[in-house]
UniProtKB/TrEMBL annotation:
InterPro entries: BTB/POZ_dom (IPR000210), SKP1/BTB/POZ_sf (IPR011333), TRAF-like (IPR008974). SUPFAM superfamilies: POZ domain. Gene3D superfamilies: Apoptosis, Tumor Necrosis Factor Receptor Associated Protein 2, Chain A (2.60.210.10), Potassium Channel Kv1.1, Chain A (3.30.710.10). This is 4417_t:CDS:1. Residues 188-252 form the BTB domain. It comes from Funneliformis caledonium. PROSITE patterns: BTB.
Length: 423
């Protein structure tokens, strides 16, 4: 059953636990096609009365990662075809949650996670469907704690198109009135123990009121609900402490190493703390160098984060001679991500405008017929030798494509003729 109100579409998926068992990784279930109001087109004749057509595809067991993946598909409408509209750009909020079914009470819905996303959709000729994939959309641990996938779960996915005056998720202000309570033993009622043996005391009510993750932990079927000391495994102390400090203050603790940033980023993503992720990224970008630039690209691919990916791509383009034969490049090539690697080489060659190896100019003077006796021509032939790197993907004996870096050189010539008046 589905419902659609104003700018929001809700897709209800009853007995979701059955889909987990029936649908393999990489396979999806699809919503019906649905219409949402038009916000803007790239055309001079704006017409906001024409809605847009969409479809959602949910991958219960993910595509690459273990969590759920979501694909938003834009379907070109008759109006778009007639007007030659080939681009659709949208800002929307994606949400996921559970709903209860009762014969006596109205249906109740509870959003577990929501995040703001942007999408650029392009139609080209016979291509009438364009999509954006969000691979790490949602972790199954939130609805199936301890991997118990037998309980009945009624799930819904919600998409809301933002209007011009809508308040983006990243503009929500955080109140830091709890900052003084951070690591204060007074009234603390929960303690977290890390693998290193360090402990951090906290307050359930503060964590639950500011984090959906902790609200679920302390009020659902999770075993941590009744524990006084909660063990936190395979997590860095500095990163977990940074997460708790953000929940109390809305601020980011000083992080020093790449590992600190990476672990904090992953924790923030798992706990659905989108604004913490943005604070982390803004500081993280300041430490990109020859040793870690490729990690930004790899994480950008994994988490579908363009800011991380583009940071690595831009750094590679600016420092191509230093990085193109390094360990980072080998790790990227080993992923066999054809589209991602081709994008790297495209941006690099475009940035460098075809790296110049050398310029050799040959000049010679010559007399040529002229309209007056007092004119002399000078002719220059300028040859410019250039080189650029490119990527090839060769099929290996296992049927996979192996990326190989090659380069080619070529020469361009141009003749310059100057007229010199000797009078």
């Amino acid at each position: 059953m589905t419902s659609e109100i104003a700018n929001t579409f809700v897709w209800e998926i009853g007995n979701f636990q059955k889909w987990i068992k029936q649908v393999s990784q990489g396979e999806c279930i699809n919503s019906q096609n649905f219409w949402l109001p038009q916000r803007s087109f790239e055309t001079k004749n704006q017409n906001f009365n024409h809605p847009t057509l969409w479809e959602l595809s949910l991958y219960p067991n993910g595509i690459i990662s273990k969590g759920m993946s979501l694909r938003v598909q834009a379907i070109q409408t008759k109006y778009e075809k007639e007007k030659g509209i080939t681009t659709r750009r949208k800002q929307f909020i994606l949400g996921i949650g559970e709903y209860d079914i009762s014969q006596l009470l109205p249906k109740r819905k509870a959003v577990i996670r929501q995040c703001e996303k942007s999408g650029n959709f392009t139609f080209n000729g016979s291509k009438t469907v364009s999509s954006c994939l969000y691979d790490n959309f949602f972790s199954l641990d939130y609805i199936f704690p301890r991997n118990e996938k037998t309980k009945v779960v009624n799930l819904f996915v919600q998409v809301t198109v933002l209007e011009e005056k809508s308040i983006p998720v990243d503009k929500i202000r955080f109140d830091n009135k709890y900052e003084d309570c951070f690591e204060d033993d007074t009234f603390s009622d929960i303690e977290f123990e890390l693998d290193c043996g360090s402990r951090i005391k906290a307050h359930r009510v503060i964590l639950s009121s500011s984090s959906i993750y902790f609200k679920i932990m302390f009020s659902s079927q999770w075993k941590e609900r009744d524990m006084k000391v909660v063990p936190i495994r395979e997590t860095k102390y500095t990163s977990f402490r940074a997460v708790l400090y953000f929940i109390y203050s809305g601020k980011l603790l000083d992080l020093e190493s790449f590992d600190d940033f990476e672990h904090t980023f992953k924790l923030a993503d798992m706990m659905m703390l989108n604004n913490l992720n943005k604070l982390v990224i803004n500081e993280w970008l300041k430490i990109v160098d020859n040793e870690n630039w490729h990690k930004f690209i790899l994480l950008g691919w994994k988490y579908n984060n363009n800011l991380l990916k583009n940071t690595g791509l831009e750094y590679a383009a600016d420092h191509w001679k230093q990085v193109k034969k390094g360990e980072g490049m080998l790790q990227l090539l080993a992923t066999n991500n054809v589209e991602g690697i081709e994008e790297l080489f495209y941006i690099t060659n475009k940035r460098l405008e075809i790296s110049k190896v050398g310029i050799i100019s040959e000049r010679r003077k010559s007399q040529k017929p002229s309209m007056t006796k007092n004119s002399k021509y000078k002719e220059y032939i300028e040859r410019e030798y250039r080189t650029c790197d490119y990527i090839e993907f060769n099929d290996n004996i296992h049927g996979n494509q192996t990326p190989i870096i090659n380069e080619f050189s070529y020469c361009t010539e141009k003749t310059i003729v100057d007229l010199e008046d000797i009078e």
